[in-house]
Amino acid sequence: MRILVATDAWHPQVNGVVRTLTSLQRSAAALGAEITFLTPEGFPSLGVPTYPGLRMALPNRREIARRIEAAEPEAIHIATEGPIGWAVRGHCLRRKLAFTTSYTTRFPEYVSVRTGLPASVGYWILRRFHAAGAMTMVATVSLRQVLAERGFRKLGFWTRGVDTELFNPDHPARLDLPRPIFMAMGRVAVEKNLEAFLSLDLPGTKVVVGDGPQKAELERKYPNAVFLGEKTGKDLTSHLAAADVFVFPSLTDTFGVVQLEALACGTPVAAFPVTGPKDVIADHPIGAIDADLRAACLRALTMSREACRNFALQRSWENSARQFIGNLSALQPSRALRPARRVAGRSAVQG
C-alpha cells in the first residue's frame, strides 16, 4: 500500500509527532507499506513567530495537488491540523478523495495556555477539521472519551510504540550531580508546564533536557536546576538512562511518546493524572501518577527499573504500524482512492 502522510511537524523539529511519523515509516516498510510525507519543506514560510525549529508553511493549491499526484497514494492520512493539514484536507474534499486524520496534540488547551482563547473555540474548529475525514485516529482510551464528549465522531485507535534498540539502559551518561536525578525532557515552552516540576521541593537534582522559547526565563528563575540543552540519538538515550525518575508535567499532550522512551531506558515516570500518563502508566508498577507531582516523583523512586524496561519491550513500533495500516485498509475498497496519474518529480513529495 502506498500511503501519503501530510504533516506540519517535521525535521529539524525534535518532538513526539516527528519521532512517531519517522518510526511509523520505518516499521511500515517492514510490513510492505510505503509511506511518503508531504511536509512544509519547499513551501515559503508563513512568517509568524514560532518556537525554534518549527516552520509554518504557506502552501498553495497547485503545488499541493502536484505533490499528491506525484506520490500516487492509495491512502492519504493527515497527521496535523496546521496549514499543510488544512491544504491537503481541502484538496481531498475538492477531488472527493477519502482521507483519515489523527489527533496528536491538544491544540485547544495549547492555544488557551498561550493566548487565553477559550478551549471551546479550538474544539469547534478541530471538530470541523476532523469531521471531514473517514476516521480520526487517537492514541488512548481516555483521549477518545474526551473527544467523544466534545462531539467528535468516527474515532479509531492508533497506539504508539518505542524503539527499544535505540532506547535502552545499557550506557547511562555520567552525570556528576547529586542523586537522585529527576529529569524532564522536551520542548522548553509554557505548554509543557515545566514550572510545575521545577518549583517542587525535591532531594537531589532537577534536570531539564531540551530547548525552546522559555529556556532562558526558566534558567534565570530556577538557578539550582540544571539545563542541558537539546540531546538527540544515543546522547539522548544515555541521559534518559542516567535519570532516577523521568518527570512528565505536561497537561496538554495526548500521549507523550517520551514516557515510553524513558521506560525503555529503565527509568520510571512521574506525572499528573491526565490523558497520556493515565493510559501509559495506569496502575502498572513502572511509575506514579498523582495530582501532587512531588508525591508522584518520590513514589516513582521506589519502582523497579527492570519492570520499566520489560513494560517497554512489549510496545513495539511494528504493532503500532500494523494498527495504522489496518485502519487505512479497512476503508478499502469502498473508500479507496483512485490511483493518480504518474507525474514526473515524485521524489519532491518529501520536499
Q: What would you note in describing this structure?
A:
By secondary structure, the chain is of the alpha/beta class. It has two domains: 2-161 and 316-350, Glycogen Phosphorylase B (Rossmann fold, 3-Layer(aba) Sandwich); 181-313, Glycogen Phosphorylase B (Rossmann fold, 3-Layer(aba) Sandwich). It is built from 14 helices and twelve strands. It has helices at residues 16-30, 61-71, 83-95, 107-115, 119-131, 141-149, 194-198, 215-221, 233-242, 257-264, 277-280, 293-300, 305-313, 317-329, and strands at 2-6, 34-38, 75-78, 100-102, 136-138, 155-157, 181-185, 205-209, 226-229, 245-248, 269-271, 287-289. Helix 2 crosses helix 3. The longest helix has 15 residues, at 16-30. The two termini are 21 Å apart.
Q: What's the number of structural domains? A: 2
Radius of gyration: 20 Å
CATH topology of the largest domain: the name is: Rossmann fold
Kindly report the name of the CATH homologous superfamily of the largest domain. Answer: Glycogen Phosphorylase B
Low-confidence stretches: 49-53, 333-337, 339-348
- If helices are DSSP runs of H or I spanning 4 or more residues, what is the number of helices? 14
Q: Helical percent range?
A: 25-40%
Tertiary shape: globular
- CA(first)-CA(last) distance: 21 Å
The biggest beta sheet reads: 6 strands, parallel
What structural class results from the helix and strand content?
Answer: alpha/beta
Assign the CATH class of the largest domain. Answer: Alpha Beta
